TrEMBL record:
Organism: Actinacidiphila yanglinensis
One Pfam family cited in the UniProt record for this chain: DUF1349
Region annotated Disordered, chain positions: 1-24
Lineage start: Bacteria, Bacillati, Actinomycetota, Actinomycetes, Kitasatosporales
Protein name: DUF1349 domain-containing protein
Superkingdom, taxonomy of origin: Bacteria
């Protein structure tokens, strides 16, 4: 698939607002270093039986017809270390997509939540330690999730339903469900027009 067009517009980190502020936030040149609190996560019920809504997310408005892009370095070492893009309506309606450590490998995946969460993933060991971009487009009743590593082609990750009338926000997220000390290097937060097609 060719790169989605037109190109999104970079946002200054100060333009977003924090849902559940992280332990530490530090600008580093053009990047943003975000340290997650131990035990932070987004999940609702399925299989594990718990509800967690204390992951960290820097969000901005995501009306219909727009897309959000998040860039970060996939430098994870511990189980469930994760970062990527989050689209959120409320505590029971959201989607997170990005890279997460599971089964000893970085995995490209998404969690879609409408009351309860699901989870899909695929191993991407070759992405370890490299820059990843996740793009979520909102068009009609659909969220289209794509991702790529550095300048490689985009991959379609997920097509998920979202009420076209819902008021949603989108942006970057990170969580550290199993440990303290996870610091994620975010390289980009951008918004722009939604992709015009699925393929």
């Amino acid at each position: 698939m060719t790169s989605p067009t037109p190109a999104p517009r970079d946002l200054p980190w100060s333009q977003g607002h924090w849902l559940n502020p992280p332990e530490q936030v530090s600008p580093d040149g053009a990047d943003l270093l975000v340290t997650a609190r131990a035990g932070s996560d987004f999940w609702r019920t399925t299989s594990y039986g718990f509800v967690r809504d204390d992951g960290h997310a820097l969000l901005t408005d995501l009306p219909p017809g727009t897309a959000v892009e998040v860039g970060f370095r996939a430098d994870f070492t511990e189980l469930y270390d994760q970062a990527g893009a989050l689209v959120r309506v409320d505590a029971s309606t959201w989607i997170k997509a990005g890279v997460e450590m599971s089964d000893g490998l970085p995995q490209l995946g998404a969690v879609v939540t409408h009351g309860t969460s699901d989870w899909s993933l695929a191993p991407v060991p070759e992405w370890a330690g490299r820059e990843v971009t996740v793009r979520v487009s909102r068009s009609g009743d659909a969220l289209t999730v794509r991702a790529r590593c550095e300048a490689e082609p985009w991959r379609t990750v997920r097509l998920a339903w979202l009420d076209p009338a819902a008021k949603a926000q989108g942006g970057l997220f990170c969580c550290a469900p199993e440990r303290s000390g996870l610091t994620v290097r975010f390289t980009r937060l951008a918004v722009g027009p939604a992709d015009t097609s699925l393929h």
